[in-house]
Amino acid sequence: MADTRLAAYRHLLGAQMRSQTQYRASFVADVVGSVLFGVLDVVGVVVVFRVTPALGGFAFAEVFLMTALAGCAFAAADLVVGNIERLRHYVRSGLFDVLLVRPLSSLAQLAAMDVATRRVGRVAFSAVVVVVAAANARVPITPGRLGLLVVTPVAGAMIFGAVFVATATVAFWWIESGEIANGLTYGGLNFAQYPITIYGALFRRLFAYVVGFAFVAYYPALVLLDRPDPLGAPALLGYASPAVGVAVVVAAALMWRAGVRHYRSTGS
Amino acid sequence: MANIVTNTVFGFLRFAIMLAVLDAGGRTVAGYDEPQLATFVWAGQGLIGVVLLWSLPDLAERIRTGDVVIDLLRPIDPVWQQLAADLGRAGYAALTRFVAPIVVGALVFKLYAPRHMLTYALFVCSALLATIVSFGCRFLVNAAAYWLLDARGPNTLWTVAAPILSGLYVPVWFFPDTLAVALVVATPFPSVIQIPLDVLVEHGSATRQLELLGVQAGWVVGILALCRWVQARGERKLVIQGG
Amino acid sequence: MTRVIETRGLRKEFTVRVKAGWLRRRTRVVTAVDGLDLTVDRGEMVGYIGPNGAGKSTTLKMLTGVLYPSAGHVRVCGFEPVRQRTRLARRIGVVFGQRSQLWWDLPLSESFTLLRHVYAVRAADSAARLARCRRLLELDAFLDVPVRQLSLGQRMRAELTAALLHGPEVLFLDEPTIGLDLVSKQAVRAFLAALGAAGDTTIVLTTHDLADIERLCRRLVVIDQGRLVHDGPLDDLHARYGSRRRLVVDLDEPLAVDLALPGVTVESTQANGRRIVYTLDGTITAGQLVSRLTEVAALRDISVLEPAIEDVVARIYTRHSP
């Protein structure tokens, strides 16, 4: 039974990708846009360092690596569950019922329903940027470091993905919640792109530890760069990202289930 | 209400970067001192709601489904009609969304207050011009749907490029000089955020302020002309091809 | 197992928050479905009707697992819709009148292929069902057209096909003919009638179009304000609610003397008495009335008007309104 369900999701994905490539001009714009997205991210950091030699005690190469890791994690999360923000539209229009009548998980259906090809482009580009940033920062090429370099964006994607789902889920209770979601999703990206040393204590504690954004790039980068944490946290935290990722994903899944349960008891 | 939370979050995020820059870069950066940057960031967050930097691609959706034909049946030009509606929205936002982030910022940080009374008047002018330019850009992004059927590509491009190129991310004067000037003069982006904020924090000389306003005014004319032209082309396509 | 739908005391209450003044909100409990007992056996064709807001859609949502009941027992195909949603989903098909289950941007054929995978149907089975639907509903003309370009009639035919690809035991239809042109309505009705006649699929249909009911349903369930007000064969409806047949009589000349017969009342006279409409209460046949009339007058033309189902149902709705 599980493999037929996987086959179902696979076909949903394939169909979406085919439908997107049908609009050729828009497809090209998408691809160009996805590259631009990555470029602008890099530009942002470069520009900041044009006017200052260091940020929060970190040099350009180091911050560049953090930005790259955060950007790649975000792009990967956007690829897998980015479509979840459409939940608001589905709930409002009653289309969510159509998903509930099918023998598949509603969350998986929503996620599979719009795998935009441009998002693949963005992930690919951002992965290249990660490699460039790592080389630029002269990260030592050891199996441990390479492993961490690969695992970190994946764990970061889990964290971002969980945040996407959790913030979208609020739509089950409060339909106008769209704007707040941006604060956590894009705000989270912003936060994770820079060393957390630049943020005020309260803010840092909220975003870095409660939601876990510090594990997307900052702590793993410290390990990759062989730098001790100016804030005094143990180096081991750099390896904790996958655990944090799993924890956040579980939390988001529980939130989703609660949301669907609420929807199914109160209607729309 | 939700916007205020988001704007506050981004206010803190952006200002943290500014503080870090000042920390290592010196007392002033690109001609801004700390209070000026504080006003820049917090008033900027308030300004986003007024000029509406990001909006849902409603028009594009209506073009896709064909509902846009209704606009052609009305006796008013669609562009002016939508502009009027947008200005009304901006006016309301000026009262509701603009003030809150500034209040939050003022409570926590030291903001720069304009020294001359004239600045306030110029700022209001500039904000109005910025709203029109922003409207024009959003309109054009949506109107791509006439030809692309799916405006998500251009919309994403705008969503991502606008913050960085308009000065919301960092003031455009952080960019290399020639690039910054090219951005201000040759693209509409800085006219939406950078210029009104520069007017508000009194960045540079008085002549400089007027020059910037002049650029904005130029963009208002230019972008509205472009909107009308695109609308005419779009209408023709709609009428000939039947949507 | 012949019992496909079974509910006992099915109940759904909504808590509605109503603005009472400037900032305060009052909460009010609205009972959408109030103790519904319903049993449907395999192969039945049930019409489920009621005025707007009666609780039809709410009931349907509870039967398909979309909505949790507040109280009561419900089993569909032996499953509990709330806890066994995905397993039930494979055995039922749902056609929402206004919400599409097709993929908007893709050609219709791709939607069918996708659904085949979503429901894990064997290729041979789905191909056979699809072929039959293509023939009966004439889908070939627009099988390759993107769904967003289909007309409403075409889309509804596609939705029917989509709901049947996995061979469901029960087909729920929520206002399937709404907004359709006459030809499309007839095509949909003919198709559903044939499906019902075959006997393997149980059909539950909610509609406001009573012609649907007349054509398709042998059993009618009427719900009003969350309560069942009628549940029985369509034929019994007329008997139970006192529907009357009418006889329209055209005469050469107005009647010289009033015909006072038990069981017959004059509803109206037109054309200066040359046309009389009689209402029969059932104790006297139309034939008897005509015989008596021919004794006293020369009949030019007669026609018998059967009671319209609209009138009956309207009477049911108004009889049970507060």
- Overall tally of structural domains of chain B: 1
The string of secondary-structure elements of chain B, in order, is: HHHHHHHHHHHHH
Strand order of the largest sheet of chain C: 5-6-7-3-8-9
Mean pLDDT over the residues of chain C = 87
In which range does the helix fraction of chain C lie? 25-40%
Give the low-confidence spans of chain C: none
First-residue to last-residue Cα separation of chain C: 40 Å
What percentage of amino acids of chain C are in beta strands?
25-35%
Please write the string of helix (H) and strand (E) elements of chain C. Answer: EEEHEHEHHHEHEHEEHEEEHEH
CA-based shape of chain C: globular
CATH class of the largest domain in chain C: Alpha Beta
Briefly note the structural class of the backbone of chain B.
mainly alpha
Q: Briefly, what is this?
A:
With 243 residues, chain B is mainly α.
3D structure, described in words:
The complex is a heterotrimer of chains A (268), B (243) and C (322). With 268 residues, chain A is mainly α. Chain A has one domain (2-266). Chain A has twelve helices and no strands. Chain A has helices at residues 2-22, 24-50, 60-81, 87-93, 95-100, 106-112, 117-136, 143-169, 178-193, 201-210, 218-224, 241-266. In chain A, helix 3 (60-81) packs antiparallel against helix 7 (117-136) and helix 3 packs across helix 8. In chain A, 52% of the residues are buried. The model of chain A has no long low-confidence stretch (mean pLDDT 86). Chain B is mainly α. Chain B has one domain (2-241). Helix content of chain B is 77%, strand content 0%. In chain B, helix 2 crosses helix 5 (78-96), helix 2 crosses helix 12 (194-200) and helix 5 packs across helix 7. Chain B is elongated, with a radius of gyration of 19 Å. By secondary structure, chain C is α/β, with parallel strands linked by helices. Helices cover 33% and strands 31% of the residues of chain C. Chain C has ten helices and 13 strands. In chain C, the strands form three sheets. Chain C has a six-stranded mixed sheet with strand order 5-6-7-3-8-9, sandwiched between helices. In chain C, strand 1 (3-19) and strand 2 form a beta hairpin. In chain C, helix 4 packs antiparallel against helix 5 (152-164) and helix 5 runs parallel beside helix 6. The model of chain C has no long low-confidence stretch (mean pLDDT 87). Chains in contact: A-B, A-C. The interface between A and B is large, with 42 and 39 residues.
